[in-house]
Amino acid sequence: MPKFWTTCVRGGWVALGVLLGLSAFNGVLAVSLADRAEAQTVVIRDIRVSGNRRVEPETVRSYLQFNIGDSYSPAKVDGSIKALFATGLFADVRIARQGNVVLVQVMENPVVNRIAFEGNREVESTTLQTEIQLKPRAVYTRAKVIADVQRILDVYRRQGMYSAHVEPKIIQQGSNRVDVVFEIREGSATKVKSISFIGNRAFTGSQLRDVITTTQTSLLSFLKPTNIYDADRVALDRELLRQFYLKNGYADATVISGNAQLDRDGSGFFITFTIEEGPLYNFGAVSIQSSLRSLDTATLRSALLTTQGTIFNASQIEKTTEKLTLMVAERGYAFARVRPRVQRDAATRTIAVTYAIDEGPRVYIERINVIGNTRTRDYVIRREFRLAEGDAFNPLMVDRAKKRLEALGFFKKVTIKRSHGTAADRVVLSVYVEEQSTGELSFGAGYSTSEGVIGDVSITERNLLGRGQFLRLKLGGSAERIQVDLSFTEPRFLDQNLSAGFDLFHKEVDSSSTSSFRSRKSGGALRIGFPVAENLWLGLNYTLSRDQLYDVQDLASLAVKEAAGTAWTSSVGYSVVYDARNHTRTPTRGFYFLAAQDFAGVGGDVQYVRSLIEMRAYYPIANKVTLVGRVIGGHIFGWGGDDVRLIDLYYKGGETIRGFDRSGLGPRDLTTRDALGGSTFYAATAEMRFPFPFLPDELGISGAVFVDAGSLFGAGAGAKRLNAEGKIVLADDASLRSSVGGSILWNSPLGPLRADFAYVITSEKYDDKQFFRFGASTKF
Question: Of 313 and 396, which is predicted with more confidence?
């Protein structure tokens, strides 16, 4: 057949198929429209419900979108089916029509008979029960089970167990009831294997790890679960890092990210914080501007904590703003607002600060509600507010109260919400808190060249009975020492900004290897302290102790034998501390000053005056290289005709001037080699700390080189210079001792450790030397 005719035949068949298809479609469409028209004209005469056991028929009918007498509508039928499924009462719903009767057939969801958990060891069943939505005697739905599985997984993730798996099992019971069993495979806790930092130049990784709350997994991590990964804690750590940089002069610092990467086997996270430090700023010009009439700004300058030329510190701006707000309020401007305005100068790297004072809206605090505190007493929370009900509302003071509550460490989260009161000028403050554990059990062990094996165990409660009080019981010791301490502190004594407390102690020291005697000291102390100014604290104390020098060896020095016995010491004292360091544990910049004095003779058997002064300075001389200087000195003398007892004198060695043994320098009996102690000592140290090259910061290892110098002299009156034959037996020289050396410092999982290698430059022949010293790191 020619190609032309073949094409025409094929085209004819296609056309015929299209015509037949259109005809059939029109017929179906006509029938469908006819059925729909017929259904809409049918009037419902009856509605019959079947399949229900617990649910009443009227309850089923109440969810239908049609009633008897209405026209039957497929659209309303669809809507009724959706409404019945949405109740969660039914597993299946069918609606059909038989003439004028609508048949509603339902299959009810079963009722939960019992809920059980299997395989959970780390999380109590009672804890999981409070988290899930399903309850006994509630209606079972698959959606609820799926949601509860996710809730259980969330609980385990908060515990750091990201490998947990939950599988629900449904066990059919009679009478349309089911048991729901959640089978749990917990897996191991997903811990933090390492914490690293990118972009940090001013501070080492070890210093920044001290700032954050998350910790790396170590040998003692089981004592404190901060090594378990928690996304919320990492978010908090980002903010802590940002605040730390703002306090130390880096006003442009940002913590770009805090990424957590799970390793391949799912056993641990690697957390990396990316930081952009920016330049170091100093304060520029600082001024006060006021729009309030008759307010003399010159009288407010005493509240300024920000000083031109010093390193920028954002926290000092906040504290100055708060102090100015209080001072202005005391002058009668209760609604005044103080707002700091800062202006950066990138060229000079300075930030000028202007404190602008103006009048705020007149709003009063009607009520303060405290919500969520199941353990902490209300007054512990309320006293952190510098505001009371009826006072003028000041947003700044409320924000400061929130920060003080967070700083207590009693709460995971603190939220303060504001709502309208009973009048337009009234406001209600609602304080929502989420409590956290405040108790801690810790212990440590180590080795020291001076004491051998050392260790300690302590139990601490920072919120005793919910009253905000501090209690610690500590037991420590070594082969030559045992010590027990009980300490209690009330941080707001008499509801004032006073810290008061007491200490009970018992200490036994075996000094037979250095001074041929053993000593015992038992007693207690009362103390009170309060801030005098920014970074300045004053403390007062009273101490009563029973001191005993006993177990004197036969070959002991005559001075030691004469000092044997028991005496009561009753003393009062004070201490003044100024601390302006940028970091309390590993400072790189700042100044520390301590002055203390004890006056014994308020009763008791002993009369003396003991004084101590110490100064430390930290200065960064290069990237991660810090120059440290320390000067320390002390003096004790008797009064009222009393001499200073041997047990009350100073005993110094490698802990003060490295290169010398314990009690290795100062007055000594040349015959027995007993260290007799001295009434006066002084020492100075210059040390340069630096990171070890080629070692990652994560190891926490750094080095130092140092120069030490000082002396101890002034033996007690009981130490005789000559014996009965007229021979010199007492060596007591104020000559300078000095040494140089190097150190290895390690922030280990067991705590800070330090190894010192020292070479003595100047000494006396009777001094005991020690080239190597290893033990707990001395912080100065």
Answer: 313
> How far is it, in rounded angstroms, from Cα 690 to Cα 209?
17
Q: Do 282 and 350 form a contact (C-beta atoms < 8 A)?
A: yes
**Does an H or E element contain 9, and which?**
helix 3-41
pLDDT of 417 higher than 70: yes
For 153-160, which contacts have Cβ atoms below 8 Å and span 24 or more sequence positions? 155/123, 155/127, 155/128, 155/131, 156/122, 156/123, 156/186, 158/230, 159/122, 159/123, 159/189, 159/228, 160/189, 160/190, 160/191, 160/225, 160/228, 160/229, 160/230
The DSSP bridge partners found for residue 281 are none
Among 66, 750, 240, 155, smallest CA distance to 445 is for 750
Q: Alpha helix (H) ranges present in 121-263?
A: 125-131, 142-158, 205-211, 231-247
Q: What is the pLDDT of residues 568-598, one digit of tens each?
A: 999 999 999 999 998 777 788 899 999 999 9
Residues 739-761 have pLDDT tens digits of: 999 999 887 655 677 899 999 99
Q: CA–CA distance from 22 to each of 16, 27, 28, 29, 36 (Å)?
A: 10, 9, 10, 10, 21
Nearest residue to 258 via CA among 197, 312, 208: 197
Rounded distance between C-alpha atoms, residue 689 and residue 616, angstroms: 14
Which residue in 42, 49, 40 sits closest to 103, CA to CA? 49
Distance CA 224, CA 214 (A): 10
Single out the residue of 323, 337, 353 nearest to residue 290, CA to CA: 337
Mention every residue, 6+ apart, whose C-beta is less than 8 A from residue 13: none
Average predicted confidence (pLDDT) for the chain = 86
Q: Which two tokens stand for residue 312?
A: 């920028």
Q: Which residues pair with 105 in a beta bridge?
A: 50, 94
Cβ atoms of 72 and 140 closer than 8 Å: no
Cα–Cα dist 394/338, whole Å: 10
Q: Check residue 310 and report its DSSP letter.
A: S
Residue in 736, 739, 747 with CA at minimum distance from that of residue 705: 739
State how far the Cα of 404 lies from the Cα of 736, in Å rounded to an integer. 48
**In this predicted model, what pLDDT tens digit does every residue of 34-69 receive, in sequence order?**
444 444 568 888 898 888 877 888 888 888 988 888
The set of residues, in sequence order, having a beta carbon less than 8 Å from that of 416 and lying 6+ positions away, is 398, 401, 402, 429, 430, 431, 432
Contact yes or no for 401/426 (Cβ under 8 A): no
